[in-house]
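Q: Got a minute? One more chain.
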Amino acid sequence: MLFQRWIEYGPGCDANVRPGGPDTTNVARPKVGSIPYGQAIYRCNRNGDIALTYDDGPYTYTEDLLNLLQRYNAKATFYITGRNLGKGAINDPDTPWPVLIRRMVRDGHQIASHTWSHQRLTTLSRSKFWNQMIYNEIAFADILGYFPTYMRPPYSASNTTTDAWLNELGYHITYFNLDTEGYLHDSPNMISTSKQIWDNTVEGRSPATNKWLHIEHDPVYQTVYNLTEYMLRSIRRNNFTAVTVGQCLQDPRSNWYRTVSSSPSPTSTSSPSPTFPATTNGRCGSRHGGATCRGEPNGETCCSQNGWCGGTSDHCGRGCQPVFGTCRDTPEPAAPGRCGAAHGGARCTESGWGCCSRAGWCGSTSDHCGTGCQSDFGTCN
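A: Always. Here it is, folded:
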């Protein structure tokens, strides 16, 4: 709580340091769509969806988390804090964070705000509250040219006053109804408790009648390197789909962000794709300036999990970073008979089932192999 008091005093506290970037204070904030603004949202709207969300990042582990989500073709929402955990400002070009945030967008994930420096909003004056939201917007706009309309209050702490301020700024206030408490169980011996919470909620439930808005934290080691893959396997096994919050609320992508004047519009269904430079020293990935191995000679086009270009199984297999090079690993088989992007990118050709139907089922009948057949995930007539 001492730091909470320090924030009220001067520029000596980095929470009070305005980031560089376009001022968003006077950006128009129309309230579009059917999702409420300035009100608490705890649940998804669409059965079969599990909205994976991660708070407090980006962090050292976030790149590996993105690689894991990509292997399973799973989407998530990242509630980003602008300056916390000693990581510096998210738009500082000398850090890996701008590249990682652009990659999140490129990979189809949703970006949301978790405030500038993770203060308990209910303890702040109006001016300090405003800075917590506007400073994060400025940093996002500096990186992407736009900023989010979705947020989650730190510590899940908001009240009628702060809700009204968030409504004034045009934010959807999103919480969760599935919390494995991974941040409380960050050790190999304790993470099983979080897995049990997940299993008690999800395992064996029908996607026809169930949906969840979930929370984790990407600065938590066991969450990234143990729990997340456990959840992704469960999602696939039980035929749910890992989606963003906007998707689970059935809110069009064009409503997820606000554009800064004269900046690229984020309304396209295909997210802006950053251009990554070619490696000059054999290093790759967001920790090395976003350098890519694509175009390297002698087939050394894979970017290993440790950020080296090469062509061996160590480079191209498990942990390979697909955004920064080619990879040879393929998705694991989905639940028997399921296929397509909604089922982890599973292919019927790999599971021996043949064609992937429009609805995501493997088979060899005309219904599977004819109109609507998904050629990316199986054979088609």
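A: The two ends are 65 Å apart (CA to CA).
Q: Perfect, thanks.
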